[in-house]
Amino acid sequence: MNSTPLDGKVALVTGGSRGIGAAVALRLAQDGADVAFTYQRDSERADQVVGQIKAAGRRPLAVRADSADAAAVAGAVDAVAAEFGRLDILVNNAGAFIVAPVEQLGAAELDQTVAVNIRAPFLAAQAAARHMTDGGRIVSIGSNLAERAVFPGFALYSMSKTALIGLTKGLGRELGPRGITVNLVNPGPTDTDANPADGPNADGIRALTALGRYAAPADIAAAVAFLAGPDGGYVTGATVNVDGGFTI
User: Fold this and answer.
1) Active-site residue flag, 39
2) Planar angle of CA 13, 15, 18, nearest 5 degrees
3) Phi and psi at residue 105, in whole multiples of 5°?
4) Cα(44)–Cα(8) distance, integer angstroms
5) Among candidate residues 16, 26, 31, 15, the one with its CA nearest the CA of residue 226
6) How many domains does the chain have?
7) Reading across the β-sheet that carries 60-64, which strands appear in turn?
8) Do the domain assignments include residue 72?
9) Which residue from 50, 37, 122 is spatially nearest to 87, judged by alpha carbons?
10) 92 bridge partner residues
11) Cross-referenced Pfam families, in alphabetical order (predicted)?
């Protein structure tokens, strides 16, 4: 039996029951990792991802955790490390997507976005760093809107995703001496429930890309798999735009 790039590795994907997160979880499993993932509510979708990971021949674990809950975030990381006996890869994927004119946003929307999009990745990375050894990988999922906000109403969301650039650079510098890489993947328009490629605004969004099309979730997962695997071992502190040329 041929070996796969992530044989013997354990990965945790936050928000892994749907969309990009589910695609990342499946790709990492196909590459040989045992994969845990968090989900908030949809146990049916979580069960589907568990089945896909099993079908890839790897061990799955679904952990119910709200990324807005600081204790739940760190607790999920520790629980995965305890269950599998190690943690090699963390993918910060869970996100809050709140879009509205700035004058309509209140403290509740601000707090929710900061908690899920900024605090949770920080706390998950902090907890993961306690368990990771040489060769560990931390990959966060950002957004092309951190670099190019072409529509009104995205100030809060863009701000939160821009913060991940600083987190990635700071952690990359701090954890590099330990052999742990930290990187950021910024997807462009991706065909998910939140932004379907056949949605009412899809033609206008598609026209903003150089390639003239949406990504599939598997396109984003491929970039994550590269950064999580042995071929990505000399990349750290980097932002990788997987956006079809949206930001050029």
Assistant:
1) no
2) 105
3) -90, 135
4) 28
5) 31
6) 1
7) 60-64, 34-39, 10-13, 89-92, 137-141, 181-187, 239-242
8) yes
9) 37
10) 140
11) adh_short_C2
- Tokens in use for 80? 């995965």
d(CA 67, CA 38): 9
* pLDDT tens-digit series, residues 25-54: 999 999 999 999 999 999 999 999 999 999
Q: Are 176 and 247 in contact (CB under 8 A)?
A: no
Give the tens place of pLDDT for each residue, 109-164: 999 999 999 999 999 999 999 999 999 999 999 999 999 988 899 999 999 999 99
Q: What is the largest CA-CA distance in the chain?
A: 59
What is the domain extent for residue 54?
10-189+218-242
Check which CATH number belongs to the domain holding 170 and give it: 3.40.50.720
Q: Are the C-beta atoms of 27 and 21 separated by less than 8 Å?
A: no
Q: Which two tokens stand for residue 76?
A: 């999920």
Task: Tell whether 165 is covered by a domain.
Answer: yes
Report whether 162 contacts 186 (CB < 8 A).
no
Structure tokens at 178: 């330990």
**pLDDT band of 1, cuts 50, 70, 90:** very low
Q: Which two tokens stand for residue 34?
A: 């045992």
Asked, for residue 211, whether it belongs to a domain, the answer is no
- Scanning the structure block, which residue is given the tokens 């989900």? 39
